[in-house]
Predict the structure.
Amino acid sequence: HRRDATIMSVTLHTTQGDLKIEIYCDLVPMASENFLALCASGYYDNTLFHRNIKGFMIQGGDPTGTGKGGESIWKTKFKDELHPTLTHNARGIVSFANNGPDANASQFFITYGKHMHLNNAYTIFGKVIHGFDTLDAMERVPADAKDVPLKEIKINNITIHANP
């Protein structure tokens, strides 16, 4: 029998405005647990989005701000959860960044468009449901040759919402 899935969402309060993200707890339980626990612990508070590529994606979730750091709640990399109904088919898809298969930790990215070539390589755990104006503002921030934003884009803090 199917249990009633709790719909979870979080609001990232950023320097560019708020982004509300629905989390796919029922489809990707490990990724969801990791992201929500990191949010709840304040892990992402005052962290930078360190990579911004217009038309592609924005990446954050590394407390070092370099793109080389970050840990999961288990202090180790965790395996991919690739669900057939979850694809990078739109603007605002939220996935864990990795440096190869089964190498998820804390870094995540949000797509600026449809990027189907990312399917089956990155664990999707949510989607932006409100704040597309904020996502637009983030995309407009110019970046240097290494895709580092020239103006700070930061997560100030996060609100967690539950709708049982």
Notes: The CA atoms of residues 43 and 117 lie 30 Å apart.
